[in-house]
Amino acid sequence: MLKSKIKALLLSSRHRKITRPYPFVPVKPPENLRGKLQILKNKCIGCGNCVRTCPSRLIKIENTSDERIVKFSSGRCIYCGRCASSCPERAIQITHEFELATENKEDLEIEVRLKMFKCLQCGKPFIVENMLTRQIEKLSDKSEEQIRKLMTCSECKRKMQQRGD
Amino acid sequence: MNSLNDKISSLAKVEKEAENLVVFSEASQIREIVRLIILQGARFIHLTAIDFSEQRQKIQLNYFFLLLKERINIILKTELDSASPSVSSISDIIPGAIWAERECMDLFGVNFLGHPDPRRLVLPDDWPEDLYPLRKNFSYDFKPPVKSEASVELKKPGEGRTVIPLGPFYPSLEEPAYFRLIVDGEEIVDFDYRGFYVHRGIEKLAESVLNYQQIPFLAERICGICGFVHSTAYCQAVERAGKIDVPERAKFIRTIFLELERIHSHLLWAGLAAHIVGFDTLFMQAWRIREPVMQLCEMITGNRKTYGINIVGGVTIDILPQQMKDMEGVINQIEKEVRELREIILNDEVIQLRFQKVGALPEEEAKNFYVGGPVARASGVEIDIRLNFPYAAYSEIGFRMPIRKEGDVWARTIVRLEEILISIGILRETVKKIPEGPTFIKFTKIEPWQEGISYVEAPRGQLFHYVMTGPDGKPYRWSVRAPSYQNYQALSVLLKGGSIADAPLIIASIDPCFSCTERFETVDIKSKIFRTYTAEELRKCLKAK
Known about the structure:
heterodimer, A: 165 residues, alpha+beta, four-stranded antiparallel beta sheet, two-stranded antiparallel sheet, B: 545 residues, Cytochrome-c3 Hydrogenase, chain B, three-stranded antiparallel beta sheet, 17 strands
């Protein structure tokens, strides 16, 4: 009986204290840690891909008269990183920041306000400005006519076609 | 197999589809067919319902069986009128079906005639009558009014007997469950269980608002220790239903994490068992040995637990060559230390006295309740889904199954310690054989009304997930049966005849997982007793004093 106890004693005496002195000494997070979300506001085109992929359903899109607001209630975030991998513009980034405890829930709200572009014909806001810029960049034929087409909302485009312009 | 087919086809319509044998039966024939299937040596897996009230005013009952030798799933289906669904109970033929039938009563309102114990199982005591949360006309965010006379129906002790309550907050595992031991002197003669306090309505949430690729992350959160088995089982079920061929490398990566999880889960259990009998040195050391596994997982996936890498079609990460090397280093170290730990545990006379001949589960009873995992293997039942029904990369890896005949706590300890070493062997082979290639395959559309069944050998036993695909990009029905669900039901056998002092150890010896068992609570309980106080209110209370 004693033999086993002596072995247990030897086992535990071989190992010194392994508890880390955190938080007095900071801990370096591992390379792949998925921490707080960071949104690059000037890159977001407001496409809504992240809204559809988020398992916690914490991303909401609201449209006001001249703005599209993308809201992240990141207090409910599970740090899966699916939004970042679904973002076509890499506007969502996963940082290494993990010390997120707060007394105020609103500290964890992230809001991205995107300006809407107004249709050249009717003046109705119809596309996020960043999205329009990307579309113009992608145009192979950057003639003024093509650009004007992109700056017109689908309704006005249809009306123009009907009129035969 | 053919003989079964012949016998059943005289009673019901049979369809064969890949590895599934689907039997459509009349409700009146159920008992007869179940008897036939059991006679063929099939294991009862689960019983659940699917609501087709909107389509054809029917509730479809699905009985799942598994023919291990032939590797065939049997799905026995019968349709009941959704206005008053009722069918005769099979609990006297299969004692392991008692809970599954009670669950269907609670969540679908199916009446099982002749059920030996038709009390509530899943729903809270103050849940109103005639409100069935898993029916499709019940909205996932609906909060029903609280029933005014909430009563707890519990077993009454007989003459000269006393009740010893363990719970509702279970002391040694720090989780909510209420065990009522009915004792005669020191001896436990009967036992009652009331749990499902952490039932969170996960299945309802998934069926109502989440899509195929969002659910793996919810599934992984079913368990706080072995969550990866749930996301793997769910993804495999959808992949089978949608006929998605997962790349080989993804299968190997899943295998690696499943085995890492088994190692850390068994070490956690070994520590807890030592802690329960007061051997805290071993508790600390077992958990210290476990720590490098957690850190290894954190290094590769970014998380110690809940890796968040499983999606339908594969995994989201790849393991780099350097990480493979680190893994080998970690498992070499753990192997050495686990051997040492095993020697200490097995040679300790106090542990021997506490564990041997305590909480015995005879092979016969183990088969009756269809228990799985180390609990079954310690009672002489040869079942390991990794070998019997290979999934992920297990078909390409050879290993043995540790079997003990005694069925007591001691045997379960030996089996688990043995399995840690076997898992280390599996990991070595997986790392050697892992092929190069992609880790994820894109899929376009999943056809509706397809069925997928998937098993995973979780550290606690046989895990079962069932998915029926739906028309709008999400499952129509997703059902989970955790291994502890079956193992719990065998507790009535394990505890009877034991002494009060052994009860915590016996309960812990099945390595129960409360949150897995109770996977789906429907609404927040707002009873009259519990309420949340704001900081302001608490301050006022203090001032008043």
